[in-house]
Amino acid sequence: MSILGLDLGGTRLKAIWWKTDSHTIIEQTAVDLPNTTLPVFLEAVQSLASKRTFSAIGVGIPGTLDKPRENVVFVPNLSGWGIVPLKKLLQEQYQVPVVLENDANLAALAEYQIGAGKGTCGIVLLTLGTGIGGGVVIDGNVLTGAKGGGAELGHYCIDPNGPPCNCGSNGCLEVYTGRDGIIRRGAEKHPGRANWTPLDWSN
Questions:
Q1: Residue of 97, 3, 101 whose CA lies nearest to 15
Q2: Which of 26, 133, 171, 194 is least enclosed, having the fewest CB within 10 Å?
Q3: Environment class of residue 144 by beta-carbon count within 10 Å: exposed (0-12), middle (13-18) or buried (19+)?
Q4: CB atoms < 10 A from the CB of 200, how many?
Q5: What is the C-alpha separation between 28 and 15, in angstroms, rounded?
Q6: Does pTM top 0.90 for this prediction?
């Protein structure tokens, strides 16, 4: 029996097929996304799902979910999502159980169970990419907070008068240290290279 695991990022969708009885990876791949709207995401999932059979789906989302983990509530760095009943959409499409969770929460839980945090009483993890994510595990329990965003460390305000963030606040950690924030600050310091992309940083 295998599980299809999906990790949605700001520019690509990563996939893994995990064999549950032997705890081994069968295959892993990634699909670059022209944009991160919901229709593009669902089309990419369909393309990946056609590659192999699976008995369940797990999805890591770069944002907050409601308490029952059925609906995506807010994804600040993805365009055009809003509140999405993603669990229902995927279950109806593929007729298998679906689990949704914040991507950084999943990363923290994995490190706690089988990685760097194994054997500890808790772990705090930061994910660095398009945005800044965070996951906190205490005594085996993932800290989610009352509204699902308790460990969104990238959206802790460090300067109330700072630049606007995609979450609607100002001066969040992510504005300064996320990929887009670093590019923005680089472009401000070097106006002649305002069209830098992440691939240009080595030049």
A1: 3
A2: 194
A3: buried
A4: 11
A5: 6
A6: no
